[in-house]
Amino acid sequence: QLKHITTHRKLPPGPWGLPIIGSLHLLGNLPHRSLSRLAKKYGSIMFMRLGSVPTIVVSSPQAAKLFLKTHDAVFASRAKLQGVEYLTYGTKGIAFSEYGLYLRNVRKLCALKLFSTAKINSFASMRGEAIGLFVQSLKEMAAAGNVVDISTRVAEVIEDMAYRMVFGHDKDEMIDLKTLIGEATSLAGTFNIADYLPFLGSFDLQGLTRRFQAASEAIDEVLEKIIDKHTKDARDGVNHMNFMDIMLSLMSKSNDFKDEPLYAIDRTNVKAIILDILVGGIDSSLISVDWALAELLRHPRVMKKVQEELKNVVGMGRTVEESDLKSLIYMNMVLKEALRLHPVGPFLIPRESVEHSTINEHYIPKKARILINTWAIGRDPNAWSNNAEEFFPERFIDNNIDLYGHDFELIPFGSGRRRCPGIQLGLITVQLILAQLVHCFDWELPNDMSPSDLNMREKFGLTMPRANHLIAKPTYRLHI
Ligand code: HEM
């Protein structure tokens, strides 16, 4: 049982900090890489002060297990970040809410009503339709001999599927919302000095507060319109059962779970949860497809092998269906390997300790920010041998490592009480799009670029997309 130590409080080892800024200057442009280097010197549980925030950086599978499993309850909360407060109605959604009764209930509610296998399957034909249009438009570009901005096209189809699932088919307000959510996603990922030096917050040195305010007000206006429309439809007896309709129908009902007292969700919760699903689901899925395809373009041997598998399992006379996905064993190894090297959330979503604790004889203060460096964990040579930096999907042949947070060397969806609740939906989306791109087309890099020259630079934020869009020329290869 975990008990607080008050006698000798020995913080984990870490670099000395400077006055006021602490170790902020050590982060650089790609903090996951800088902190991975520092962890080699100070260890896999490292302490540093970032501005005034006590921060623990966790960099090995064994250490991650201590924080995400053994002592998960102590580290299951989230830090209150300034931008997030604005963009989540004061943390009324899921992803940034503190750990407690509300969050537990709302996660259960969403698991049951939105993310169940039955619910996800009920959108299969919608996904099939969206993917069909996507492949058709790429086919036309291939016929015209055009180069394609794959990142943009993939973003469009994922957005299309997500918006249809969340709101149904009505498009009008969606157009505004897509742009606004794009802005919110990028704002949420911006490094905000006020999150580390709160006394600077009121000066709004980066002009972020104004942008947070403007974005949140504009989003709220659109969401209000959408809710009014859905409420009216429900009154008129039109029943679509998309995510918004489901959430609205739950608003008035009690969701009294057996073991816990009633906690009703209100209109603000509905807006915040829907926003979380859009911001969390779209960005992470498209980043995963982008990195996986980039690795395939860089490794023609692996690309060929995936295409062979698709030819054997699906054939060349039809396109991939969702029921094929579980049979694409090698492609799923490719996806694991891409998520190992390019985790969408390099630090997961930062957690916060709810009380003082002692882990491996290290004192971890209350309200410390916990950064689980999944990027470093995915490249830890002790876990992955000395070819850890190499893209080599065959490493998964002889093991049962899965993506569900049981194996702490591979945790791109996190683990424990805050693990991604959208994992099943995310995986279906990513596998389906990746399979279509590789099955329907051969891809050639522009300007005779050699595969090994493909730029793999990262852009750090709350999520970590490629720094550059993926551009390539498709040739259609199916016989239909
Ligand atoms: C390939 C796609 C995806 C990846 C890689 C991904 C990754 C993650 C990660 C790393 C976390 C943080 C986990 C932690 O702190 O331990 C997370 C949380 C979350 N994800 Fe996902 N995700 C994906 C798709 C989705 C989808 C499709 C949805 C919704 C439709 C979704 C909704 C959420 C939510 C609501 C949370 C917050 C959970 C909480 O704080 O309790 N994600 N995701």
Helix-strand blueprint:
Elements: H1 31-42, E1 45-50, E2 53-58, H2 61-70, E3 77-78, H3 82-87, H4 101-113, H5 117-122, H6 124-143, E4 148-149, H7 150-167, H8 172-189, H9 208-235, H10 243-251, H11 267-298, H12 300-313, H13 329-341, E5 351-352, E6 357-359, E7 362-364, E8 369-372, H14 374-378, H15 381-384, H16 423-440, E9 441-444, E10 471-476
Parallel strand pairs: 2-8
Antiparallel strand pairs: 1-2, 3-5, 4-10, 5-8, 6-7, 9-10
Helix pairs in contact: 6-7, 6-16, 7-11, 8-9, 8-11, 11-13, 11-16, 12-13
Bound molecules: protoporphyrin IX containing FE.
What low-confidence regions span 5 or more consecutive residues with pLDDT below 50?
1-7
Number of helices: 16
CATH architecture: Orthogonal Bundle
Bound molecules: protoporphyrin IX containing FE
End-to-end gap: 62 Å
CATH class: Mainly Alpha
Rg result:
23 Å
Helical residues, percent: 40-55%
Task: Give the overall shape.
Answer: globular
